[in-house]
What we know:
Layout: E1 2-5, H1 12-21, E2 24-25, E3 32-33, E4 38-41, H2 52-64, E5 68-70, H3 74-83, H4 94-102, H5 106-122, E6 127-129, E7 134-136, H6 151-159, E8 161-166, E9 172-175, E10 186-189, E11 198-200, E12 203-205, E13 215-221, E14 225-230
Parallel strand pairs: 1-4, 4-5, 7-10, 10-12
Antiparallel strand pairs: 1-13, 2-3, 6-7, 8-9, 11-12, 13-14
Amino acid sequence: MIDVIGDIHGCYEEFEQLTKKLGYDWSTGIPLHNNGRKLSFVGDLTDRGPESLKVITTVYQLIKEDKAFYSPGNHCNKLYRFFLGNKVQTTHGLETTVAEYEKLSSPKQEEVKKSFIWLYEKAPLYQVHDNGKLIVAHAGIKEEYIGKTTSRVKTFVLYGDITGETNPDGTPVRRDWSKHYNGTAMIVYGHTPMKIPKRTNRTINIDTGAVFGNELTAYRYPEDETISVPSSLPYDEARFRA
């Protein structure tokens, strides 16, 4: 029994509201379910939203206590590289997380950095649940990639089915891999903001653009249903794909 949470992007308030709506109890400081349900995170915990570091801390505690599942997204990958000291551009949302980070004291910075590096390095590239009946992968995964972790699979899982070309707004051109998926495993993913959860074959995109003012969505397994809460942030129509 798993509740997969879409791209949070620092929307901590919405994350808390959604988990409470799903029946999770926060009395211990982290969301836990009395009936043994567990949260699963589809990646992109941080960037753009107001409280990325609180999201990191909560997810870190959940994973540390073996109370949830997490796989990284492309924003997680970039933040990881930033924390390692690699040269990355603090743009496309990373600047908000870095600004939060730079306001902390040195010991607190070290704590957050260590927590996130541990979280990222411990995480599987994608999650396989219920004997392969449920797959959680940030930008999705092709059927023939399931069970593999090559660099090609990693690029696909983090960024989607990119062509190498860019749209006028600078975002990469991506093919819709889900139209060609005909596997039996249910694939839950995010990465590309949609106004409503997008079902195609045995796949569902649950990134409903919380950070762009729409909703934060969870997919409940095995119930095969979605539950959402509205975002408190300003709505940005231009961010959503048709």
